[in-house]
Write a sequence for this structure.
């Protein structure tokens, strides 16, 4: 597929805005303090939306709908522990990072345990981010390849270079404000997709809920031998149970909001402890609805392709193709001209990763 002029125009406008943000803030980067923490001047709602932009990515945009399309909402379950983890982090861990005007989590580790621990933790974070970024760019390449015909390798290179340029040039100011833009554009892209599905189905939204409920697509279930089976809620560390997944979620989110440089750097960029806490709660109660929305988008895609079946959708359900390809396939074949460009922009927004890192 080659992009139509309206699609290309929408994409160019978005990319131009993002690059302009990076170049604009590059003029302010006259010191290390400004480059890495923006002069510690950000309000809570801006940092909060930036944290949302960090927590959502191509994984949210492509993997969540793909998982809900093929199975149910089990992937969403660990996310329910996010508010609890953020509450603990806001009142237990946040003061450690705000104290002493630190820039990174690793400064605190050096003060507490010495330089060797600082270097070790920083290297582990870099390795983890390389894995995360690789996954995000790979998922993004599926969409770009589906819509433009570019090879996955070229898609990864182009997206990676673009994101790296404006984040490196603009510093934390550019990252935070493009995160805010990313959150908005990501939701617009998803809403376009859901709107097309609802308007195309004879029964609209009610039909989605009815069919999904009848077939168990809205529950916490896993796929076993081609059947959706609700998970058990007994406590076990060996089997996949609801209790275990909640524990995994709590552990993961505590790690994210107490030791991850992506979030710690934003804590330090807030103008006060109160604004940093506000940002964390804005993130918690904004991220959960967004994740739920993209899970529901996957459920809506399942119902859509039950009513209008295609060979590709059947192959994805049968495991012959990757589940993450369902949204790119839908965008390519069912969105009107002009809308696809906005959705691609949303996907590129979801690839944004913080590069203002210092160990």
């Amino acid at each position: 597929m080659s992009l139509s002029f309206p699609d290309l125009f929408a994409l160019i406008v978005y990319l131009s805005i993002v690059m302009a943000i990076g170049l604009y803030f590059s003029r302010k980067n006259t010191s290390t303090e400004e480059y890495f923490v923006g002069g510690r001047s950000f309000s809570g709602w801006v940092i909060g939306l930036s944290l949302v932009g960090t927590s959502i990515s191509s994984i949210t945009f492509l993997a969540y709908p793909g998982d809900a399309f093929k199975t149910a909402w089990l992937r969403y379950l660990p996310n329910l522990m996010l508010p609890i983890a953020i509450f603990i982090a806001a009142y237990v861990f946040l003061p450690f990072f705000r104290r002493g005007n630190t820039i990174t989590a690793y400064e605190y580790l050096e003060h507490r345990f010495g330089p060797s621990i600082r270097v070790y933790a920083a290297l582990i974070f870099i390795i983890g981010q390389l894995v995360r970024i690789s996954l995000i760019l790979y998922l993004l390449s599926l969409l770009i390849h589906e819509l433009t015909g570019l090879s996955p390798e070229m898609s990864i290179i182009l997206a990676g270079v673009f994101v790296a340029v404006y984040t490196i040039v603009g510093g934390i100011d550019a990252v935070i404000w493009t995160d805010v833009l990313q959150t908005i554009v990501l939701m617009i892209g998803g809403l376009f997709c859901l709107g097309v599905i609802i308007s195309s189905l004879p029964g609209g939204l009610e039909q989605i809920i009815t069919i999904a409920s009848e077939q168990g697509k809205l529950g916490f279930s896993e796929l076993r031998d081609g059947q959706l089976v609700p998970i058990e809620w007994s406590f076990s560390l060996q089997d996949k149970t609801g209790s275990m997944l909640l524990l995994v979620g709590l552990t993961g989110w505590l790690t994210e909001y107490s030791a991850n440089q992506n979030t710690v750097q934003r804590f330090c960029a807030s103008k006060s402890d109160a604004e940093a806490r506000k940002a964390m709660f804005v993130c918690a109660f904004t991220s959960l609805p967004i994740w739920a929305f993209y899970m529901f988008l996957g459920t809506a895609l399942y119902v859509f392709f039950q009513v209008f079946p295609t060979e590709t959708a059947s192959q994805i359900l049968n495991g012959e193709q990757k589940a993450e390809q369902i949204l790119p396939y839908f965008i390519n074949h069912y969105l009107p001209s002009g809308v696809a460009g906005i959705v691609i922009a949303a996907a590129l927004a979801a690839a944004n990763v913080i590069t203002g890192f210092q160990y």
Q: What stands out?
A: Residues 152-200 form the longest helix (49 residues).
